Structures are given as structure tokens and as C-alpha cells.
């Protein structure tokens, strides 16, 4: 009893009270009462008089300080609770004794852009064996240096040189659907049933393979590569680790090692990347891809700019995850919304047909044309507004005593989560906020988009470095599908698409969405 009591006392805040209780732990019953009394009193003080007490929130959350995982079960559903709290309490909500979430557009801009607060501790749990990348580092100086090294690979000029590789993968995507339709006709079926969610993921992986490693994973052709399952599993594991403390992860790993990955990613990604890099280095050949730019950094003049092989591996794992699930899921959601709104689908087809008249020959889209199509861009923007990749919020941490929005005093080491979804469906910023209305984004709209309340690629120094890459891929993919095919929903998939989860990206729980496809004539 005494040893257990000492362990409990050690968790109390350092100070005279803890020292007194520890010295007198042998009087277990009396000390236990004192410990309980101190705990209750300190928590009541935090709820009603603490530095966050002026921010609204539930008594239970602030008093008990439950781990994020408590609010994230079933896994990936915490975002529903967060939007509910904002609807009840407003744009600034206290979610635990040391965390708040915000949906005010000006406060989000302040936290992410103007004051550029560092990323919160949750990102550290996404580091594979403690190895930092541009995405998961908390160190601003490290991020600044790493981003400077990697940024040439995502410049507009360099991406233009990679467009033909993306177009080749998109061509494989179109050919795969054409073949499925032809096969269906051979069996006297009017349409082919295609799992678009999976096919888009496969295509996005092939795009990354072609542009980042100068080799296709051939996912669209045979679908046998282990990467998609590995990525999905790692996103789920990362969602778990990001929701709990390191201490709880270590305890869970010790007792349930066979059931939980918790504190590690699947090593198959790591060794797969090692093989690619070793093969490139042994060949001595220079290739026009993102990997080459990372390898070239090894000859940089500044020592801090040089990436060793392990650095390159970890950054490429980041590219695989950030460049596949994000874009493919966004296009998948766009297709779902277009099926739900046939009038929007008709307008998008009309726009594409006006630029690329249907004359019976194969069409190869040019990004230079697509980037200027207002309705295509409107459909993608509206999809990212309602279905943002970072549905769970963008967590930052105060590195000093902080004044939020000119009115809230936030102490150091408090996590502030920018809830961009709650912001992007706020009725004061967006009339009919949950309605899919691409016309918001058109010039002269009666319900114009509030672009200051729109954060699809984050903001500030930690915004998405692959933004231009994502736009190119999404425009090419969505245009090619809508232009070449008619499609209708499969009823079972319509129901499946209602069960959505937020892991690292926002996705369908079943990881599947099927449509009936025919060719446009």
C-alpha cells in the first residue's frame, strides 16, 4: 500500500505538498485521504480559477483530464466530438485541463501564420524511432533547414517537368477503367463495378512512384504491392499514438505487444525505401525525379543541408503517405459529392467539353489548361472545405505565455488545436455551410467563399510543401474521370460512405467506394 501510494504522490505537482505527503506515506490511510483531497481541490481550482477557466468547456473534461484516446473511440471519430463542442460552446473551447481548440478564423491565422506556434507534442509520436522529418519535427530550426533542402523538388518549374509522369499514371488509370468496362460488356453487363476509392489510392501511389523514385509501383496494373495496406495500417497506428501520451504507449506496448504497434511504424516501408536508394546509388545514374534532388543534397556546401541515406528514407516515407492518401481521398470525396449533385457534375462536364471537344480521339489533358478552369477548381475547393484532410485539427503548443485573439491569456505549454473543419463549416463564414455548392468559389457568387476561413493546406511556415503537386494531380485525375466516363453509385457503397474516420487523413472507414461505370460516347 505504501509503495503504491508513493507512486501516486510522485505524479502530483512538485512542491512542498508533494514532499510532505511523501515523507509521511507510511501513514497510508491518512495520507491517502490527504492525497485525494489535494487532487480534488487542485482540480476544482483548475476548473473554476485556473488560467483556462474563462474558456468554456465541460466540467468532466477539465476535471479528469482524460487522454485524447478516450474521446477517439471508435478510433478516428474524435473530430465528431470536437465539432459538437464548438457548436455548443463557440469558437474557443477548453477540451482538457491543458488543451483548447479554436475555430475562429482570425485566431487560427494568428496561431498558424502570424505567430507561427510550434507543432504540439503529438507529432513526436509520429517519429519512427525518434527520427525527425519535415512533417513531424517540433524543432523550428530543423524544419527551416530541411524545408530549404527539399523545396526545389516542389517548385512550379520542377513540377512542370514531372507532369508527363503524372499524366502517364493517369493514363493507366483511364485504361484500367476502360478495360473493366470492356470486360463487363463481354459478360453482357451494362456497366463495370469499380472500387474508385481503392483505384484512386493505387493511382496516387503510382504517381508518387513515378515522380519521386522514377519507377512505378504498378498498383493500377496488378494491385499486388504491399504498400497500400502498409500505409493504411500506419495511419491507424499513428492516429493511436497521436492520441495518447508516450507513457501510456509504453505501458500498452509492454503488455499488448502483439496487438498494438503503438510506438512504431511498419518497418517494411523503411526497408523498401532503403532498397530503392541503394539501387540508385549503385547505378550511378542521374534521373529526373524527387529522389535525385534529395541525393544531390549529400554534396551540399553546408553540412546541415546534407541528407544521409536514413534522412532520405524517412523523408520519402513522408512523401509516400502525404502524396497518396491525401490527394486520392480528396478526389474520392469529390466524386461522391458530384454523384450526390448531378447538376454540379453536368456543369463540370460542360466546362471540360468546352476546352477539350469530344471528337472521338484520346485526349491528354494539359495542366496549363486545367488550372484556369473556374468550375473544376471550385469543385475541388468545395470538396476540401467540407472534407478537409486534417479533419482532426492542427495542434500547436504555446512556447511562451500567450495572448490569443487579444483577450485570452494562455500559459506556456498549452496545446491549441486549430479546428479547420469547424471553421470551414461555420455558418457565419459560410452560408449553408454543410451544402456542397461549388458556385461559392466563382466570381460574382451570391454566397462568396470566405477565403480567410479556408485552410486546406494549413498556413504559415508549416503549410503543405506539396500543395502545387497536389493541385496538379487532383486536376488531372478528376478531369480525366469525369470527361471519359459516366458513373452511378452502388447503394451499398453509399451507405459505407456515411461512416467516416479521421486517422492522419480523413477517409471512409471501409476504405472502399464502388461505382457503376460506362464510357461516355
From TrEMBL:
<dbReference type="GO" id="GO:0004497">
    <property type="term" value="F:monooxygenase activity"/>
</dbReference>
<keyword id="KW-0349">Heme</keyword>
<keyword id="KW-0503">Monooxygenase</keyword>
<comment type="similarity">
    <text>Belongs to the cytochrome P450 family.</text>
</comment>
<protein>
    <recommendedName>
        <fullName>Cytochrome P450</fullName>
    </recommendedName>
</protein>
<keyword id="KW-0408">Iron</keyword>
<dbReference type="InterPro" id="IPR002401">
    <property type="entry name" value="Cyt_P450_E_grp-I"/>
</dbReference>
<dbReference type="InterPro" id="IPR001128">
    <property type="entry name" value="Cyt_P450"/>
</dbReference>
<keyword id="KW-0479">Metal-binding</keyword>
<dbReference type="GO" id="GO:0005506">
    <property type="term" value="F:iron ion binding"/>
</dbReference>
<dbReference type="InterPro" id="IPR017972">
    <property type="entry name" value="Cyt_P450_CS"/>
</dbReference>
<dbReference type="InterPro" id="IPR050121">
    <property type="entry name" value="Cytochrome_P450_monoxygenase"/>
</dbReference>
<feature type="binding site" description="axial binding residue">
    <location>
        <position position="464"/>
    </location>
    <ligand>
        <name>heme</name>
    </ligand>
</feature>
<dbReference type="InterPro" id="IPR036396">
    <property type="entry name" value="Cyt_P450_sf"/>
</dbReference>
<keyword id="KW-0812">Transmembrane</keyword>
<keyword id="KW-1133">Transmembrane helix</keyword>
<feature type="transmembrane region" description="Helical">
    <location>
        <begin position="27"/>
        <end position="45"/>
    </location>
</feature>
<keyword id="KW-0472">Membrane</keyword>
<dbReference type="GO" id="GO:0020037">
    <property type="term" value="F:heme binding"/>
</dbReference>
<keyword id="KW-0560">Oxidoreductase</keyword>
<dbReference type="Pfam" id="PF00067">
    <property type="entry name" value="p450"/>
</dbReference>
<dbReference type="GO" id="GO:0016705">
    <property type="term" value="F:oxidoreductase activity, acting on paired donors, with incorporation or reduction of molecular oxygen"/>
</dbReference>
Amino acid at each position: 500500500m505504501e509503495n503504491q501510494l508513493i507512486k501516486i504522490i510522485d505524479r502530483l505537482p512538485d512542491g512542498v505538498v508533494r514532499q510532505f505527503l511523501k515523507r509521511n506515506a507510511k501513514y497510508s490511510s491518512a495520507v491517502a485521504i490527504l492525497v485525494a483531497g489535494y487532487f480534488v481541490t487542485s482540480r476544482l481550482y483548475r476548473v473554476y480559477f485556473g488560467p483556462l477557466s474563462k474558456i468554456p468547456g465541460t466540467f468532466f473534461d477539465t476535471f479528469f483530464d482524460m487522454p485524447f484516446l478516450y474521446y477517439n473511440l471508435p478510433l478516428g471519430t474524435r473530430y465528431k466530438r470536437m465539432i459538437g463542442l464548438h457548436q455548443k460552446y463557440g469558437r474557443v473551447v477548453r477540451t482538457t485541463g491543458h488543451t483548447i481548440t479554436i475555430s475562429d478564423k482570425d485566431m487560427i491565422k494568428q496561431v498558424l501564420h502570424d505567430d507561427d506556434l510550434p507543432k504540439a507534442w503529438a507529432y513526436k509520436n509520429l517519429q519512427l524511432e525518434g527520427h525527425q522529418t519535415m512533417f513531424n519535427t517540433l524543432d523550428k530550426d530543423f524544419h527551416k533547414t530541411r524545408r530549404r533542402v527539399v523545396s526545389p523538388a516542389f517548385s512550379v518549374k520542377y513540377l512542370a517537368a514531372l507532369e508527363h509522369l503524372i499524366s502517364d499514371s493517369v493514363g493507366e488509370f483511364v485504361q484500367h477503367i476502360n478495360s473493366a468496362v470492356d470486360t463487363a460488356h463481354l459478360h453482357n453487363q451494362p456497366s463495370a463495378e469499380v472500387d474508385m476509392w481503392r483505384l484512386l489510392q493505387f493511382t496516387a501511389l503510382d504517381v508518387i512512384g513515378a515522380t519521386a523514385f522514377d519507377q512505378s509501383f504498378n498498383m493500377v496494373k496488378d494491385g499486388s504491392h504491399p504498400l497500400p495496406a502498409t500505409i493504411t495500417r500506419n495511419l491507424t497506428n499513428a492516429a493511436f499514438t497521436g492520441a495518447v501520451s508516450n507513457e501510456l504507449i509504453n505501458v500498452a506496448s509492454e503488455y499488448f505487444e502483439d496487438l498494438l504497434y503503438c510506438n512504431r511504424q511498419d518497418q517494411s516501408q523503411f526497408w523498401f525505401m532503403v532498397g530503392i536508394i541503394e539501387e540508385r546509388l549503385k547505378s550511378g545514374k542521374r534521373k529526373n525525379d524527387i529522389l535525385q534532388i534529395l541525393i544531390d543534397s549529400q554534396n551540399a556546401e553546408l553540412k546541415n543541408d546534407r541528407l544521409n541515406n536514413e534522412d532520405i528514407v524517412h523523408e520519402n516515407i513522408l512523401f509516400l503517405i502525404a502524396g497518396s492518401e491525401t490527394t486520392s481521398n480528396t478526389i474520392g470525396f469529390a466524386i461522391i459529392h458530384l454523384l450526390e449533385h448531378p447538376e454540379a457534375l453536368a456543369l463540370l462536364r460542360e466546362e471540360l467539353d468546352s476546352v477539350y471537344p469530344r471528337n472521338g480521339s484520346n485526349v491528354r489533358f494539359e495542366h496549363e489548361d486545367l488550372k484556369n478552369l473556374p468550375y473544376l477548381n471550385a469543385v475541388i475547393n468545395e470538396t476540401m472545405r467540407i472534407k478537409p484532410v486534417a479533419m482532426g485539427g492542427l495542434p500547436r503548443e504555446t512556447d511562451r505565455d500567450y495572448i490569443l485573439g487579444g483577450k485570452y491569456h494562455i500559459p506556456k505549454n498549452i496545446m491549441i488545436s486549430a479546428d479547420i473543419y469547424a471553421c470551414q463549416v461555420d455558418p457565419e463564414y459560410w452560408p449553408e455551410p454543410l451544402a456542397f455548392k461549388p458556385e461559392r468559389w466563382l466570381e460574382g457568387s451570391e454566397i462568396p467563399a470566405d477565403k480567410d476561413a479556408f485552410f486546406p493546406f494549413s498556413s504559415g511556415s508549416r503549410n503543405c510543401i506539396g500543395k502545387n503537386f497536389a493541385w496538379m494531380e487532383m486536376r488531372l485525375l478528376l478531369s480525366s474521370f469525369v470527361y471519359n466516363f459516366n458513373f452511378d453509385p452502388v447503394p451499398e457503397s453509399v451507405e459505407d460512405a456515411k461512416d467516416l474516420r479521421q486517422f492522419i487523413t480523413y477517409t471512409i472507414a471501409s476504405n472502399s467506394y464502388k461505382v457503376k461505370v460506362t464510357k461516355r460516347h
